[in-house]
Recover the amino acids of this structure.
């Protein structure tokens, strides 16, 4: 029942009932743990935090000016695309979401937004460091995302450190490694190259950082080149995410 | 563990454990090892029950765990039910439960349950999974000791 509903990108009734019943205690426990962690960190690093806060305020002022300019340019691009009859680029609206549950063994996150907020399966989940995962199942008030470290995920990635950027499909190998299979077996990918999303999908915009190449392997038998990627997001450390609508 | 009192304690423990599993477990990770609150509660409660109690508790533990994860519901139910039944069988032997026994049983249950899970729903990388399982087993064992003391105060001595 769970698998059948998941294939339809929905959450089954048993899962939804159990999650709803546990949600209040889970949220309270999570918030309490967060508060205790923040409080003890604040006590230990009060001086550093004050200095950091001052710097961040200055940076926020500079960022506001930059974002204003970026917003204006994006509006211009949208207007030009409309004139050309091209579809809108996905992922323009960022919806902040709370992580309600994290299940590393199953490579899944439960997030606090659902279909009521306009969330659909296939949308990208990002953090400040890069791509975290992709929304898989959606309920009215919450959704579950599959992490990029999952072996079930297949997404387009490209190496922006090369020109023209080599393209391929990546999948998760384990919690700290992804594998990018390149379409071109002679693609000039090197260690240290930055891999981002290709943007060729319907709902995942291009340019979201996935990680850095840590190893390049050639499979002469099959004539393929594979790049191992260290994900830029440390999955266990993620606390806040955004869903790109 | 019988009667209304036992039922209330079991429901309450599973509810709180499920909530903690959802919201706190990942924040409490030490060197990649996370506690599994539901397995801790299952192991400790089963020490105060029999085979039937263990099986029922195992079923609901698996149901909660599978529902929270959103995948492998049947696998979680089967592995946890077997684990609960096994502790119930173990509990029919004549021994006195104490926090040390709770540590050993919880650590053992974690290893057995996770190994069954590994064979029925293989993870993408097995060596890290096994290392994390050993870490979790020790972590769970340590957390089971205070829970055992609390539950022992709340419930009557085991009815064998």
């Amino acid at each position: 029942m769970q698998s059948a509903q998941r294939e339809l990108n929905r959450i089954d009734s048993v899962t939804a009932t159990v999650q709803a019943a546990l949600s209040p205690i889970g949220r309270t426990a999570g918030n309490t743990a967060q508060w205790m962690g923040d409080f003890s960190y604040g006590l230990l690093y009060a001086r550093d935090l004050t200095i950091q806060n001052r710097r961040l305020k200055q940076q926020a002022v500079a960022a506001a000016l930059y974002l204003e300019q970026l917003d204006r340019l994006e509006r211009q691009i949208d207007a030009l695309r409309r004139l050309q009859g091209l579809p809108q680029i996905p992922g323009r609206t960022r919806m902040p979401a709370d992580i309600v549950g994290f299940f590393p063994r199953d490579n899944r996150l439960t997030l606090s937004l659902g279909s009521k907020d306009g969330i659909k399966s296939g949308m990208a989940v990002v953090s400040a460091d890069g791509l975290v995962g992709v929304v898989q199942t959606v309920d009215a008030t919450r959704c579950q995302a599959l992490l990029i470290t999952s072996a079930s995920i297949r997404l387009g990635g490209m190496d922006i450190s090369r020109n023209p950027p080599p393209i391929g499909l990546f999948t998760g190998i384990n919690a700290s490694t992804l594998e990018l299979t390149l379409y071109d077996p002679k693609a000039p990918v090197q260690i240290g190259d930055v891999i981002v999303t290709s943007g060729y999908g319907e709902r995942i915009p291009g340019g979201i950082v996935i990680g850095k190449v840590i190893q390049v392997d050639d499979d002469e038998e099959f004539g393929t080149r594979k790049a191992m990627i260290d994900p830029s997001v440390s999955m266990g450390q993620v606390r806040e995410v955004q869903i790109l609508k | 563990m019988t009667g209304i009192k036992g039922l209330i304690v079991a429901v309450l423990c599973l509810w709180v454990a499920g909530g903690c599993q959802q919201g706190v477990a990942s924040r409490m990770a030490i060197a990649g090892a996370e506690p599994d609150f539901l397995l801790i509660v299952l192991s400790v409660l089963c020490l105060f029950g029999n085979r039937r109690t263990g099986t029922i508790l195992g079923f609901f533990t698996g149901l909660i765990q599978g529902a929270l994860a959103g995948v492998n519901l049947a696998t979680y139910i089967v592995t946890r039910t077997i684990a609960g039944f096994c502790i119930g069988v173990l509990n029919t032997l004549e021994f006195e439960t104490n926090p040390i026994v709770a540590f050993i049983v919880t650590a053992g249950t974690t290893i057995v349950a996770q190994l069954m899970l590994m064979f029925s729903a293989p993870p993408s990388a097995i060596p890290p999974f096994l290392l994390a399982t050993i870490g979790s087993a020790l972590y769970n064992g340590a957390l089971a000791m205070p829970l055992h003391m609390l539950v022992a105060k709340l419930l009557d001595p085991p009815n064998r």
Remarks:
- The longest strand of chain A covers residues 209-219.
- The interface with chain B takes residues 1-3, 6, 11, 14-15, 17-19, 21-31, 33-34, 37, 100-108, 110, 137, 144, 149-151, 172-175, 236 of chain A (CB under 8 Å).
